Recover the amino acids of this structure.
């Protein structure tokens, strides 16, 4: 057997003038441009609020995607585009969250590959990095262990995350809406039996945080595509529709007050101490009556005279009106709900104009914060309540009563249309008589 002969092919020396090939540096695809530039496949300078190309195109709506969300086929151990993973959260957190929730999601017919909804790991990353509520970020690093121990808390956090993603992505909100409804159903299903268990420190914290998130979701879940808000205001004219439709979110919010009282023994060692401190203390959560009412307008005092359940809410409204509209004061704005008694809710159910006016004013003050989660409720229900009051003919009443209501409606409109130097917000458009 003879030795094989090998031929080596080479181009070395054949053309010395040709430079040596060097691998080019990797350039990631630009994903931060606006939607019109992406559609035209042109480079976007990413100027905000309007890029240079869109500014030169009349009628072109420049819109950016704030964050990139992964598809259902993305790996659990890879963070979605646009997210920076919190160092305190373990890398296996999405797998754990998915493992905890999948049995409950399947039980309600959700969470399967055929379901077109935002995946759990995308919701978790958004909750850890971008979600912000009236009481701060619900998934702080120190709360991860507590969240894993209580599935109702995990489901409520991810439902709030899906709600926030839906409000951020008006172009395609359906996957986020499906995830929001599915996880909210799981949270409510698990929350009820958790309320019946004996309290300890961890259960107390989990129940409180879950209740806050459920209230947040109830307030933010508003269908703004119902048509004319004036037509929606007809729901306030019949008491038969008030309990389930008009004020169900408020009844749920008022349920937080007895829960706070029941868990008072665990307050000092709670991981939610920063939330309690941000809202003041227990005395500020449930403000005691004060002798001085100098800051309350005369027409407001006359409205609440002789009605005990209206006096504290009216005093609270006057204090909130003087509060600067900033994220740091968001908890101060929701103090109004802590002043409400069951009798106030009964007045709303019966269509009482005084209670309606007080609730509408508070919604208008909440609009001063101009947050994504409050905007829909403020614009829709604020206009509906005003429409109800005007249709009741309160301004056409004779004597001092008519003069009082004329002033009250004027104050109502001022709350909704007043501008603030600290917040650039859009004035709510209210129907005129």
């Amino acid at each position: 057997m003879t030795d094989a002969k090998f031929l080596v092919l080479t181009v070395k020396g054949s053309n010395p003038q040709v430079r040596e090939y060097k691998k080019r540096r990797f350039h990631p695809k630009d994903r931060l441009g606006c939607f019109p530039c992406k559609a035209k496949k042109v480079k976007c300078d990413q100027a905000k609020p309007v890029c240079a190309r869109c500014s030169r195109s009349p009628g072109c709506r420049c819109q950016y995607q704030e964050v990139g969300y992964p598809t259902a086929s993305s790996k659990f151990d890879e963070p979605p585009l646009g997210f920076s993973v919190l160092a305190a959260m373990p890398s296996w957190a999405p797998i754990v969250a998915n493992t905890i929730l999948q049995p409950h999601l399947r039980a309600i017919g959700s969470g399967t590959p055929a379901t077109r909804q935002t995946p759990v790991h995308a919701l978790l990353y958004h909750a850890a990095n971008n979600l912000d509520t009236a009481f701060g970020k619900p998934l702080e690093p120190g709360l991860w262990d507590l969240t894993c121990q209580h599935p109702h808390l995990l489901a409520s956090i991810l439902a709030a995350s899906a709600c926030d993603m839906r409000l951020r992505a008006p172009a395609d909100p359906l996957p986020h809406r499906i995830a929001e409804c599915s996880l909210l159903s799981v949270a409510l299903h698990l929350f009820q039996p958790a309320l019946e268990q004996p309290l300890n420190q961890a259960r107390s914290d989990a129940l409180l945080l879950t209740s806050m998130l459920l209230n947040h979701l109830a307030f933010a879940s508003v269908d703004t595509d119902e048509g004319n808000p004036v037509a929606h205001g007809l729901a306030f004219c019949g008491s038969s529709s008030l309990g389930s439709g008009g004020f169900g979110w408020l009844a749920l919010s008022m349920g937080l007050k007895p829960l706070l009282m029941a868990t008072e023994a665990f307050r000092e060692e709670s991981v939610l101490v920063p939330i309690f401190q941000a809202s003041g203390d227990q005395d500020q959560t449930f403000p005691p009556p004060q002798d001085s009412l100098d800051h309350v307008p005369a027409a407001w005092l006359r409205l609440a005279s002789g009605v005990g359940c209206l006096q504290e809410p009216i005093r609270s409204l006057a204090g909130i009106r003087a509060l600067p509209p900033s994220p740091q004061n968001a908890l101060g704005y929701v103090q109004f709900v802590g002043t409400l008694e069951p009798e106030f809710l009964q007045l709303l159910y019966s269509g009482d104009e005084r209670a309606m006016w007080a609730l509408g004013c508070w919604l208008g003050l909440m609009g001063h914060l101009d947050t994504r989660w409050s905007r829909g409720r403020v614009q829709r229900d604020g206009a509906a309540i005003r429409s109800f009051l005007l249709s009741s003919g309160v301004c056409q009443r004779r004597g001092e009563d008519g003069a009082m209501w004329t002033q009250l409606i004027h104050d109502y409109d001022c709350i909704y249309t007043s501008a603030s130097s600290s917040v650039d917000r859009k004035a709510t458009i209210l129907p005129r008589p």
Residues 270-417 form one domain. DSSP finds 22 helices and no strands in the chain.
